[in-house]
Design brief:
Largest sheet: 6 strands, mixed
Helix content: under 10%
CATH superfamily of the largest domain: RimM
Mean pLDDT: 90
CATH architecture of the largest domain: Beta Barrel
Number of domains: 2
Strand content: 35-45%
Shape: elongated
Distance between the termini: 39 Å
Number of helices: 2
Number of strands: 13
């Protein structure tokens, strides 16, 4: 787990004509993404230095090492950027990297298996756990009220979904 790669950003496309990219940061402090460089792609085969050049709406303009043309920058659109867990800060007890949650068993408050955490999504209003089982998917707000227990050692989360009438 110590050498595990954690996704901390993604390239949203080219910015300008001189090889800059539009970089989305998934870090708690968005500007800190450059502090964890060099960043790699998911396979770990490509590595990039990162220099933030401008703050954009919801992203940054950035220069990546080795990327000098708009075409090179545009070819990276959709590329997720990763840093080794060892380079990232330790988290408080009640905070988690999304990659720590994916794959955990999800059980209800009575201990019945609901499925596994498939993804952690965030569309701007907070994190949402997608819990999948062979029959269905369940979306649950990742709040203390709806997910009162995260037990990484036991590889499970306890889910108390809100009533449908709420």
């Amino acid at each position: 787990m110590a050498d595990e790669l954690i996704c901390i950003g993604a390239i949203a496309g080219a910015f300008g004509v001189q090889g800059e990219v539009r970089l989305k940061s998934f870090c708690a402090d968005p500007e800190a993404i450059a502090d964890y460089a060099p960043l790699s792609d998911k396979s770990g085969t490509r590595s990039f230095s990162v220099a933030l050049t401008k703050v954009l709406n919801g992203a940054f303009a950035a220069r990546l090492g080795g990327i000098t043309t708009r075409e090179q920058a545009e070819a990276l659109k959709g590329t997720q950027l990763f840093a080794p867990r060892t380079r990232l800060p330790a988290l408080p007890d009640d905070e988690f990297y999304h990659s720590d949650l994916v794959g955990l068993d999800a059980v209800d408050t009575g201990g019945a298996l609901l499925g596994k955490v498939a993804t952690v999504q965030n569309h701007g209003a907070g994190d949402i756990l997608e819990i999948r089982n062979p029959k269905a998917s369940l979306l649950v707000p990742f709040t203390r009220a709806c997910v009162p227990t995260v037990d990484l050692a036991a590889r499970r989360v306890v889910v108390d979904p809100p009533d449908e009438s709420e």
